[in-house]
Amino acid sequence: MSVNEEIREQRKKLKGQGFKAHWDYFWEYYKIHTIVAVIVIIFIVTFTRDMLNKKPYAVYSMFLNAVGLETQEQIQNGFAEYAGIDTVKEVILADTTSGFSLANMDNSTVATSEKIMAVMAAKELDVIVADTNSFGHYSALETYADLRDIYSTEELDAWDSQGLLFYVDRGYVDYLSSDYYTDYLTNGQYDKSNKYAVMAAEYNETFQFPVQDKSEMDDPIPVGIILKNSTILKETGAYPQDTPVAGIITNTQRPDNAKAFLSYLMQ
Predict the structure, then answer these.
(1) Going along 46-131, which residue ranges are E strands?
(2) CB burial of residue 243 (10 Å; 0-12, 13-18, 19+)
(3) What pLDDT, on the 0 to 100 scale, is given for residue 16?
(4) What is the Cα–Cα distance from 110 to 177, expressed in whole angstroms?
(5) DSSP secondary-structure letter at 143?
(6) Which of 99, 109, 164, 257 lies at a C-alpha separation of 20 to 30 Å from 24?
(7) Rounded to two decimals, what is the model's pTM?
(8) Torsion 116-117-120-124 (CA) sign
(9) What span, in angstroms and rounded, lies between the C-alpha atoms of 214 and 226?
(10) Cβ neighbours of residue 132 under 8 Å, at least 6 residues apart?
(11) How distant, in Å, are the alpha carbons of 145, 236, 249, 261 from that of 85?
(12) In whole angstroms, how far apart are CA 182 and each of 39, 91, 176, 179, 201?
């Protein structure tokens, strides 16, 4: 049996299995590939920008699972006009080519995961926009900045009153980084009296992010802005069946431009 045939057989066996099975498969077949790819992507990103065109990014954004043939161009041109950015001097990148679905764990998902790790490591990524489920996945991995560190209380309260803030529970985030969760991934056992352990186990079976009401969270952290009213994204048709959410990356080097980009999307 060839390597490709073996991989196809393994994927068939994974159908209906939980996150642990998918993760074990991913790490077995893609570990070296992932490490090498991240290094290569970092090199390409920095070399292309610094050595070829010598233009810095005004903003680097990724739109996970977006659709539309002209979405990228429309967003880039629209933001340049909105923010008065001279694209001769600076680059606006709205990457709409990345697909992500843990339920499938296909080449697109692997490539997207690698790309996000790489551009974050290179401190180039500013904003991620994604469907609710994908956004939630990355929110639990502490990918996004706490919006309380970026926006005023008045701004956040106004958006909260309109149901435009996406929260993640600090307790859930902490559980995912705990030894208890590591043990669960190893042996499949978890404390059924721990609500975060139950949430994580259910997510690893269904791949549906456990969306909670803010009132049910022990320590809600605002990490995303829900773009349900965005005329920009409606005009592009980027998310015809999903409600997109936008977040600012924790280590962005351009917080002011990232804020301006979110303001543009919120129109």
Answers:
(1) 57-63, 91-95, 127-131
(2) middle
(3) 45
(4) 21
(5) -
(6) 99
(7) 0.81
(8) negative
(9) 14
(10) 166, 209, 211, 242, 243, 244, 245
(11) 24, 21, 21, 11
(12) 26, 40, 8, 5, 12
Note down pLDDT in tens along the chain; length 267 residues.
444 444 445 444 444 444 455 455 555 555 555 555 555 565 556 555 554 456 899 999 999 999 988 999 999 999 999 999 999 999 999 999 999 998 877 788 888 988 999 899 999 999 999 999 999 999 999 999 999 999 999 999 999 999 999 999 999 999 999 999 999 988 999 999 999 999 999 998 899 998 889 999 999 999 999 999 999 999 999 999 999 999 999 999 999 999 999 999 999
Tell me which residue has tokens 């995961």. Answer: 113
Q: Is 15 buried (19+), middle (13-18) or exposed (0-12) by CB count in 10 A?
A: exposed
Give the residue among 242, 220, 224 at the shortest CA–CA distance from 233. 242
Domain 3-158+223-265 has CATH 3.40.91: no
pLDDT of residue 103: 83
Residue 8: per-residue pLDDT: 47
For residue 9, give both structure tokens: 């057989």
The widest CA-to-CA distance across the chain, in whole angstroms, is 62
Name the region of 215 (left: φ>0; alpha: ψ -120 to 50; beta: rest). alpha
Residue-range domain boundaries for the chain: 3-158+223-265
Q: How many helices (H) and strands (E) does the chain have?
A: 11, 6
46 three-class SS = helix
Q: What is the model's pLDDT at position 222?
A: 98
Joined tokens for residue 192: 């059924």
Instruction: Give CA–CA dist 131/245, Å, rounded.
Output: 6
